[in-house]
Amino acid sequence: MRENIQGGTRRVVVLGTGGTIAGRASQAGDNIGYTAGQVGVADLLGGIEAPEGVALLAEQVSQIDSKDMSFAIWQKLAQRCAYWLAEADVAGIVITHGTDTLEETAFFLQSVLAPSKPVVLTCAMRPATALAPDGPQNVRDAIVVVATPGARGVVAVCAGTVHGAADVQKVHTYRLDAFDSGDAGPLAYVEEGAVLALRNWPEPQLATPVFDRVVSAASWPRIEILVSHAEARGTIVDALVAERKRGAPDAVQGIVLAATGNGTLHHALEAAALRAQAEGIAVVRATRCLKGRILPKTGETLRDAGGLTPVKARIALALELLSSRA
């Protein structure tokens, strides 16, 4: 942990989790052949000047490639966020994160914390050792967002764009502006150290708090994501049901179906999903389309996830199952 006091009265806590932003490559010109999660978060802040009236504090939560994100790290992140958000002089939190699962972590934290202060995830598409790394500017922009009056909720900042946790998706494999907010559009832009708001910041919308259940849970409900496609089969679903019937200790509890179009499924996969639902497995449909939401139709026997992507529907279902545990 390192605190960078510059005469400020408000603190911005920067939690490091690893990712490309903390990556190193053997050659400065190599933007893809790097190892993620090599540079500590305190070092990432080196040379970044805090806005006037702000003090930076760095804390390392994990040091991983975000493709390997786990429930255990999410639990720790939620706990550390809750701890720091409760401090009166903390304006908000920045989380340095890998791009691969950033949208999942953002949605998880918004669902669990629904904070009135800003929690800003930021990232990089180039490693810290690149000739022109994008991480330092993204971190600077994230700090600016936290320090902006009225900012709240969990958001992501990348390439000068602010995305809400419910909307953000990684849509490109390589370019610096790899994220998009779909039909909703971005919340704001960061332009030369100032935030240009486009719409309202996310509002807390938790009907039932799940924080205590999440941080005390010994395990995360096993939920698999399966994709509907041409010639899809129900074989994998049936295998998961059979595993559950055998009493496997880590048997599946839920299935998210990445459906085509407006929540449609290949007939063989749909039939297997109905068999799974009859066996007590929670089944949810989410569209695999990048934009749009599932518009419900009368007579549907498998519920839908509305506008949630498959990975976010998985998180929502897991939190629902955690909440229902005795």
TrEMBL record:
It comes from the Bacteria. Keywords: Hydrolase. Gene3D superfamilies: 3.40.50.40, L-asparaginase, N-terminal domain. Pfam families: Asparaginase, Asparaginase_C. The active site is at 20, 99. The keyword Hydrolase applies. InterPro entries: AsnASE_II (IPR004550), Asp/glu_Ase-like_sf (IPR036152), Asparaginase/glutaminase-like (IPR006034), Asparaginase/glutaminase_AS1 (IPR020827), Asparaginase/glutaminase_AS2 (IPR027475), Asparaginase_C (IPR040919), L-asparaginase_C (IPR027473), L-asparaginase_N (IPR027474). Residues 222-321 form the Asparaginase/glutaminase C-terminal domain. Residues 11-197 form the L-asparaginase N-terminal domain. Belongs to the asparaginase 1 family. PANTHER family: 60 KDA LYSOPHOSPHOLIPASE, L-ASPARAGINASE. This is Asparaginase. It comes from Variovorax ureilyticus.
